[in-house]
Amino acid sequence: MRKFNFCAGPAALPEPVLLQAQQELLDWRDLGCSVMEISHRSPEFVEVAERAEQDLRDLLNIPDNYKVLFLQGGATGQFSAVPWNLFGAGGSREERVADYIHTGQWAEKAIKEARRYGRVNIVASSEDRNFTYAPGPDSWCQNENAAYFHYTPNETIGGVEFDYVPEVSCPLVADMSSNILSQPIPVEKFGVIYAGAQKNIGPSGIAVGVVRDDLLDRTLPEIPRSLSWKIAADAGSMDNTPPTFAWYLSGLVFRWLKEQGGVEAMAQLAERKSSLLYEFIDGSDFYSSPVEKSSRSRMNVPFVLADERLDKEFLQQAEEAGLLNLKGHRSVGGMRASLYNAVPLEAVEALVAFMVDFEKRCG
After folding, report:
1. Domains along the chain?
2. CA 357/CA 363 separation, integer angstroms
3. Considering 106, 229, 247, 256, which one is annotated as catalytic?
4. Is 241 annotated as a binding residue?
């Protein structure tokens, strides 16, 4: 029996996608073998790759002057790839600088990696209030020589989401791992978008990159081959053997999203799901949200109980009720419900009903 999965990643996948993969697992397209067992350079798999790229382009309305890349190493790999690929026009190590907004643990990891290859200017930080809000542009302190401007539109751990796209003069780079495909994106405002797959795209093991063509020639000369966007683009993301099964499953998710009505439909659903949960939390004295209302994520909803001694009991009973993976990240504690595209509205309704009952019994 399938249960409701609120895991932050690897996260829930659409049930129709899982069923199709199950049906095709042993005999894909009457080839007598699995899609995992054929060459990535075969005509059959090249068709899968090209269809996945086109579907993603359709979903996000990606302009023709952007390359779509399917990469390895997850978003963490891209923390390194971003400076390696964009610092090449910045002179010596001491002269290279990039702007970063610091909004939590994933931004911090990206910042630490960039500092290995150049200087990082912290444009703004929400550390002063324990990363519970997204800093507005009135607080920025940009560097006019920055090679690029990096931010994390949605912080998975802290549950903070930007409600605007930064307007900057240098290439804008975004780690959209946890909110990509959840709403329309003005791709033309970005130089680079990257996202680990295991939240809204597909299974872990693959990442997506959307890179504007004019940024492919800014690499540092010593860049590792596996991190070069230009090499990946020139090779159709097949410079080496890619994670074919993850690519295939991601393609099935893209097709499922189009069948649901695309990112516009996902945005409406995300609003319904998150509003239902936040409105209940705000109306309760037993539960509370640590995130400022203007910065609350639609994808990741952290919340705490008035008495943290009840946390263990809450989680145990929730699991018994078929509500999985509600434990908050180890660094912040409490609870967290991740409401990615594949999480149905019924899951949130079941969660709220459980929370009402738990409060009555234990509050």
Report:
1. 16-259 (3.40.640.10), 262-362 (3.90.1150.10)
2. 10
3. 106
4. yes
Within 211-342, residue ranges assigned H as helices are 229-234, 244-260, 262-282, 311-320
Is the pTM above the cut of 0.85? yes
Q: Answer yes or no: 293 catalytic.
A: no
Is 198 flagged in the annotation as binding?
Answer: yes
The CA distance from 231 to 107, in Å, is 26
30 annotated ligand binder: no
Task: Answer yes or no: is 240 a known binding residue.
Answer: yes
- The span from the CA of 132 to the CA of 40, in Å, is 44
Catalytic residue of the set 67, 199, 230, 273: 199
Q: Do the annotations mark residue 300 as ligand-binding?
A: no
- From CA 92, how far away is CA 98, in angstroms rounded? 13
What is the Cα–Cα distance from 169 to 171, expressed in whole angstroms?
A: 7
Task: For residue 109, indicate whether it is catalytic.
Answer: no
pLDDT tens for 135-172 read 999 989 999 999 999 999 999 999 999 999 999 999 99
Q: Is the pLDDT of residue 101 over 80?
A: yes
Active site residue 256: no
pLDDT tens readout for residues 292-333: 999 999 999 999 999 999 999 999 999 999 999 999 988 788
Binding site annotation covers 175? yes
The SS3 assignment for 300 reads: strand
What confidence tens digit (pLDDT) does each residue in 247-289 have? 999 999 999 999 999 999 999 999 999 999 999 999 999 999 9
Catalytic residue among 99, 175, 247, 256: 175
